[in-house]
Design a protein that fits this description.
With about 240 residues, the chain is mainly beta. Helix content is about 15%, strand content about 40%.
Length: about 240
Amino acid sequence: MKGYLVFQSAAAKTAVDIPQKSLLAAAVFALPVFAEKTDKAVPVERKLVLQEFEYTDQDGDGIYAANIRVPVVAGEYEVFTVIEYVDPEMGTRQVRMTAVIDPEGYVYELNNGKETRIPRAQVSIYRLNSASGAYELWPAKEYQQQNPQTTGVSGAYSFLVPVGSYYIAVGAPGYETYKGEPFDVAEGSGVHQNIEMHAVGGWLKLFDWKTLVIAIVALLLLYNFYRDRRRSRLAGYNKRTV
């Protein structure tokens, strides 16, 4: 009995939530009410097969189970099980279960030590082209995803990418453009970094409006004092020359 964990979509569409820690799949799903019988070889989409695992009956009670590691990237996944019976009359059966995973990375800024999520940020991921040696925008549509992604009110984004070297770039209105350092992605890993952005002219946030008003008033007073002294000097010079 063999199983596969396959990435389906970055947009969660079902209401079935599976804990992140592990997923226990038992042979109870092999019952006819759950399993679909097929006489043909069961095709498996290989593009983003994250894990391939075997079911075992360790305690000999007739129940086969497998522990699999669920990815931490938000999206919809399919646990695809192929059951090949010894009895030829039973044939081959397949079981499909859908799991929805919801953790994500997010884009934010710091305000007085607290994180504020940034909406409408455009998050792009670039992959190293080993042939050209240059980074190129990763073709997310080939993997049922979007690139770039635009964040919502939660500032969240997520990518599930193949093995390779990548970097992330983020742009948002009113913020400096972010370009991260290159990083490597291992098999079955997602990209979910929390990215801090800095507002354009962010140094102004170090002062509250009262401090700014006092500073402006002080500058005006200094300017008036300078003008008065200059006028006094000019008046004294004119008297001496008459």
